[in-house]
Amino acid sequence: MAREESSMTGPIVDLRDVTKTYRQGKVEVHALRGIDLAIQPGEFTAIWGPSGSGKTTLFNIIGGLDRATAGKVLVAGRDLSELKNSEMSKMRLHKVGFVFQAYNLVPVLTAYENTELVLALQGVSASRRRKRVLSILKEVGLEGLENRRPYEMSGGQQQRVAVARAVVSEPDIVLADEPTANLDSAAGAALLDMMQELNQSRQTTFLLATHDPRVMDRSRRLVQIVDGKVADDKENH
Amino acid sequence: MLLVKMAARNLWRRKFRTILTVLALGLSYALTIFFIGLADGSHEQMAESAIKFDAGHVVIQAPGYQEKRQIEMRIQDPKALATKVHHIAPKVLVVQRIFTSAALQSEDASLRIDSLVAVDPDSEKRVSEIPHKLLSGRFLAPGKPGIIIGAVAAKRLKVQAGDPVVLTVSGLAGRAQERIPVIGVFRTGGGQLDAGYAMIPLSLGQRLLGMGQSVNQVALFADLQRAPSLAGKLRKVLDRRKFQVLTWDQALPNMAQFIWLDSASMWVMLLVIFLIVAVGVVNAVLMSVMERTREIGVLKALGMGPGRVVGEVIAETFLLGLLAVAFGLALGLLINHHFTVHGLDIQTIAGTESFEVEGIAMTGKIYSKLSLAPVIQTSVGLLLLTVTAGLYPALRAARLVPVEAIHRG
Fold first, then answer.
1. What is the pLDDT of residues A9-27, one digit of tens each?
2. B69 and B185 in one domain?
3. ipTM of the complex
4. Which residue range is the domain that position B27 belongs to?
5. Same domain for B288 and B383?
6. Which of A65, A86, A127, A178 is the best substitution to test chain B (most B C-beta atoms within 10 A)?
């Protein structure tokens, strides 16, 4: 299903001189040191770098799970620094999809119910939810597994459900933090194929944090983060 | 609905803990139902026993008689009053009484009777417990002079059924005396009654006391629950200058107060039990929330607001309470039914064959009696308590910071 044309003309994500400093005991940790980054609609971009480089902190700030110490963070045209916690929560619900390394499905819900969760929180009617959920589960290759609980599925299948959950509400951006880290090569490859397919068919913007070369190979743009700064930002041919 | 599904399934994730919590809460509730039924049943038995000796479900007396108990405070035409009563409540039993004190003298001893009651034998025997407590002799008969006394009084006077005694009273026409036979000896088990309570026929009492056709009390017998409404109807039609209408609890304030205090102390005890169990509920729900810290963090990351997080935890607690109420109610009703049918031996509770309450002896068995109102009140109360117990864990869950919760889990 092609994504509706975004009303946005500018970047989906626009970070200007973003810093993040936090305290660990008496020590001040500078997780991000003046990040400038713009992500355009429809991108399939990898944020890569060594552990501790600031990738996860960057993701948390873009996703509205954390706040920058300084700088401008614009997501879907909204300045996150101006949002109260409740507004931030609503922003995440409607604008951002998350895929976590550890899948993080709700264990007591089926694949269908995990996928429809965000739509239910958004207040979408049951009949519309059903249509969209079944459609996306088919797209991610999980047709017939709707009633399975997470413990009844493989890691690859669980991560597909997580992607379906992230995408079903047609967010402005999907943030996938190390999505293939817990998957074997076959499952990881299959997941990446699926995510690329969704990116192309639905024009969903994907931002993936990774240090997996397979993910980097598939990404059209590579942004390298080292010591909290953008060390490199290039098209991947 | 999805959140309710989650709540229900989350309860079942830790089956043992859920079952244990439901059992604790449910057993407490079953105990509550049992205690309420037993208390209400025993209170009704106490009230009915006391009513039969001194009052009725509704009592009509001269204004001021309740406080002063002066024999000259009379109802002049009790038959006309009975007719008026029957216009309003045709099925009500009307009983007439005179109350006074007396002296009894036998050949060997003399004794003061604190409570001599002159009654119409035909109507009185339909309500009184005395006919069922006779050790010897018979109950009063209309128009036949005689006296029924308690076993303790008989022992002190050294008389038995058939022996003569001299009855001395002080009435409207001054002191009066008559030699009459003891026609029955009763034993209730209550020391006060068996020593100081006696009955004579109404005609004898009216003659000795110079009362004419008047009486001190017209007692009405219907049932405890209908007493207030019956009293209300009577107050509207009867002349307040001549008649004071009282419900049984107004006529027997000491008994009513005892019952109230007994109930209150029972409720306090039950509340304490529930609060203790509620601590267990808080613990169980808190553990459930803490075990799901990461999951709650993810849900908040996805956009579930704090209100919904609270809602989900409260839904869990509510379902827990519902299960407990259902289980406790079923068990409690079963136990209550057993004691409604078979009763509980007073010997088992009190360690003796009888015990006295405000001079009234309770003997034999206590039967449970459970009405709908306390069942509904306690069910709702328990649900509210359970939900309240879930508030702290719910608010804790709502305050979790998503990014910290995801990494902590």
1. 689 999 999 999 988 888 9
2. yes
3. 0.90
4. 2-50+256-408
5. yes
6. A65
